[in-house]
Amino acid sequence: HRASGLTEILARELRARGRQVEIELLHVHLPRVLKTPSNGPENGAALPLAAAIDQEGAA
Known about the structure:
- The chain is mainly alpha-helical and 59 residues long.
- The chain has one domain.
- It has two helices and two strands.
- A two-stranded antiparallel sheet has the order 1-2.
- The longest helix is centred in the N-terminal third of the chain and has 15 residues, at 2-16.
């Protein structure tokens, strides 16, 4: 979360210089990873959520 920390520091500095600053926090969610069921791929690798859903639909 370095970017949000840098944004806060920049906002503080701009406010100290008389600027009006408003920060809008936007959260980015990383893709979830699901483990495959025991009857999944032999290597037991985790699949991204979309791939796991695709496999469910194909079954």
